[in-house]
Amino acid sequence: MNRLLTAICLTLLLFVSTGAQTNSTPSVPAAVKAGATQQPAVDVTKAADASRLNTEVVNLFKQKKYDEALPLAQRSLEISENELKADPKFSVTSLFNLATIYFEKGKHGEAEQLYKLLLILQQPESSFGLPVSDTLTRLALLRFWKRDTAAAASLMRRSIAIKEKVQGQNHTDVAQSSFILAEFYSLNGNVKEAEPLYQRALQIWIKQSGKEDHRVENALDRYYCMLANNGQTKRYEEFRKTVLLSEADNAHTSTDVLNGKATSKPVPPYPRKALEGRIYGVTAVKIVVDETGKVVKAKAICGHHLLTGASEEAALKAQFTPTLLKGQPVKVSGVMTYNFVLR
């Protein structure tokens, strides 16, 4: 679970959002309009220092030089809190950067404390918009990391609601957040809550980015693995056939076609280390079958790492009758599942 959670977190937090940096780091205030309330001016020199430091932090972060970025982020926050109180947006930017550096360094307690403070500063939410959604998402990841699924799901739903309001119901960012929330539920064994979220993410990505988008393949794999672990793969096929893919696509890619026409399907041996460790469970292997019915490619998409190697080797030895499309043999792909049971 920790491996998968780390992958989820890194997908979201590969780098500090430069868009948020630009929007959150204001320029020196212009003269206020006639009749408007005069706002306290910020120190021009200090504002320039904070902006420069934030830019350096972002550049170092993108290079994964977290130790070098950390003191600069701390200095930026110090300037923002002590010298630039007139404009809280400086503190918002500096807090965001410092919290995210702590997150990447594995200092989750420090990161969560700063994100919570950041959320207080980002009020009212309507004034900050999407940056609030980002903060909520990061807090959700930290809560989930600590096995607090209920709090994580609540925070993520708030994040999704903001994105829906600002970006629209069918934006790809809404799909990404829906996918993350689906993973929360899936890893906690809650298929009922996870399934519609996987489906929503897939529908948005296919509509907005096309079925070849790498996020579609990843989400399909994750959705399938969740259902396979619960013996419900037929629901995956139903979703594919009725919602996602065309008739031609389904002829080329179907777990029913592969498993239903297998002429030889060797059972993988139980790996000794897995037996010794009392490791069990379902593995799923994505395969490609050529026009003659031979498996030419096999790659595990889920299952314990001590079980996936044996599963891939067994899948490569499987044999199928050729699949015909309009009377001609075609290459097909699909998924084979294996269930390792301790006896």
Describe this protein's structure.
The protein is mainly α and 343 residues long. The protein has 17 helices and seven strands. The chain has a three-stranded antiparallel sheet. Helix 9 (149-167) runs antiparallel to helix 10 (172-187) and helix 10 packs antiparallel against helix 11 (191-209). Residues 11-38 and 256-260 have low confidence and may be disordered.
Give a short overview.
With 343 residues, the protein is mainly alpha-helical. It has 17 helices and seven strands. The chain has helices at 2-12, 18-24, 44-62, 66-83, 89-104, 108-121, 125-128, 130-145, 149-167, 172-187, 191-209, 214-229, 233-244, 247-252, 255-260, 272-276, 305-316; strands spanning 262-264, 281-289, 295-302, 319-320, 323-325, 328-330, 332-340.
